[in-house]
Amino acid sequence: MKKIWLFIHENLIRKQRVYLLIVIENQGSSPGQPGFKMAVTEDGRLKGSVGGGQSEYQMVEMTKKELAKEKPEIFFKHEIHKDDATTDKSGMICSGEQWVAFYPLDENDLPLVSNIKNAIETGEKGLLHFSQDGISFNKGNRVRHQHKNPVTSPTEWEYFEETGNANKLYIFGAGHVGLALSQIMSH
Question: For the residues 22-39, what does the mean pLDDT come to?
Fold first, then answer.
């Protein structure tokens, strides 16, 4: 998460517009998991991933077209990863679905992005809120409950993410299984 926000921050300082893509929800076998993020700049540079493959390529191309507009907007994309899908077909066949929100950011968003980046760098607790209305960040807040279905319609969604949580894994035992598990979890 830190690298994405640092990348966005650096580009906004350079007065580059950026789209932040974030997977809000998934079902079944989907390459993107909730919280996966990708940033695409006006000059075509990328950071992160929302799942890869043909689906991600199409989203990047769509994002570049949006960034070419004078006033890019927040939008949402549902992708179905099934060969027999009649709508929202992604071109992938892993049999799942994912919902991706797209957020345009420019130099006016620099204070928000700076607050998020600083909180992540210092481990400060806070709550990121992604919705159809935009992105907000509240320092010190925590998720009080989890939404079972963050996507209620193509025009309404809500996703929360906490900052200040250290990712820690404790492995007991130093055998071959512990070694393999530590290697997998480091990624």
Answer: 84
Residue 155: helix, strand or coil by DSSP?
coil
Question: C-alpha angle with apex 64: 42 to 119, nearest 5 degrees?
Answer: 55
Q: Are 101 and 24 in contact (CB under 8 A)?
A: yes
Amino acid at 124: E
DSSP character for 17? -
Q: How many residues are present in the chain?
A: 187
Q: What is the pLDDT of residues 62-96, one digit of tens each?
A: 999 999 999 999 999 877 665 665 665 555 556 67
The model's pTM is 0.80
> For residues 162 and 8, what is the distance between their CA atoms, to the nearest angstrom?
18
**Residues paired with 138 in a beta bridge:** 127
